[in-house]
Every structure is written in C-alpha cells, then in structure tokens.
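Dear colleague,

As promised, here are the two records you asked about, laid out in our usual form so they can be pasted straight into your sheet.

NAME FIELD: protein one
SEQUENCE, THEN STRUCTURE:
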Amino acid sequence: QVQLVESGGGLVQAGGSLRVSCAASGIIFSIHDMGWYRQAPGKQRELVAVITSGGSTRYADFVKGRFTISRNNANNTVYLQMNSLKSEDTAVYYCRILITTYWGQGTQVTVSS
C-alpha cells in the first residue's frame, strides 16, 4: 500500500523559514520523480518544485531562489526547504509521486505578515 505522509508545516512570520517533509512507503522510492504542490484557499493546486530520481530539480518561477527541494533515498523522504517566506506562500502543501495518482494528505503552511 502506497503512503505519503507530509509533516513540518506550521505558522511562521514573513521572511522566516520552514522545512516540510514527505515520507513515502510502499514504493521503491529511489526510482520515482517526486513533486511538491500547494493549494491556497479558493485557488487551484499548483506545482511548486520537482526532483527527479537522478536528483535534477526544477522550480516554479514564484519560488525560485527561495525554496529548495531535496530527497534522501535512504529514508524514502523528500523535503522542501522554504526560505524568505511571504504571505502569499500560505497554502496546504502536498507531495506527489509524479505521473501517478498518489498524493499525501497535505500539511498547512501559514505565513503571517
């Protein structure tokens, strides 16, 4: 059974940092490309960052230079380090195994201005 469990969300002031994690189980994690998405209230879910099985990364323009995606295949976890947070980064953050329907349950990130 495939499971993705996000953690690490919370409340942070604008300009602060937060790291969210996504632990995967039930899959051969190392062979999958992984993505972080987010969904703000009243908005569509959007792609934030991707990391391939080989470690290549790409980012949405609105987080470039502020967010870093990484992975640890030894513990089946993908991370999103978020720096210089802005109020518009407030959203529920989800991880996903790319090109599948497997999503985590999401973790709330709230940035106060």
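NAME FIELD: protein two
SEQUENCE, THEN STRUCTURE:
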Amino acid sequence: QVQLVESGGGLVQAGGSRRLSCVASRSIFDITFMGWYRQAPGKQRESVAAITSSGNIHYADSVKGRFTISRDYAKNTVYLQMNSLKPEDTGTYYCNVLIGTMDYWGQGTQVTVSS
C-alpha cells in the first residue's frame, strides 16, 4: 500500500511553467509504473505522462516537448515539469502508481492556466 500526495498546482499565465510533485509514503524504487493524469471540468481523466521502473517514458501527444516526467528515488518523489503552459492544460492533475495489480491515486492538485 502507498499514499500519494501531490503539490505544486496553482494559477499560472499561458506560456509559464509549473512543477508538480508527488511524494510517495514508501520507496518508489520497485514501483512498476508511475504516471500523471489530468481531468478538466466535464472531461474524462486522461494520461499525461508516465515512467516505468525500467525507465521507459510516455507522453501524451498534447504535451510532448513541453512536459517532462522524472523521479527522485532518494525523495520517493515523481515530478512533472510543465513548460509553455496553455489554457487547455487547465485541470486537476493526479499522480498514479501501479504496484503489482493495485492502482493508487493521489488527491490531485489543481492547475489553472490563464490566457
């Protein structure tokens, strides 16, 4: 079992940057999959970025070249660096990890990008 706490959300102007953090309550060294999802009002939750234990990384087409996912084993933390933000990036961002067959989610952090 693991608890996830996201932080770093807030209000940012279009073109700006923001870094989200997701701190896990246990070591992330052996976690198979860690990812960031977002959900805009009235829309389904969508995958934004993911990283596997072997280091494979996937980005949604809409964020490629602008967002970077990374992790710090010493801090049990996964990050999402978001640059060149657009109003359509607005939403609640959630951290997700897969441990075995179990899915765990954080409580989410709100990112609002103003035009």
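A couple of things worth noting about protein two: The longest strand covers residues 91-99. The mean pLDDT is 96.

Best,
R.
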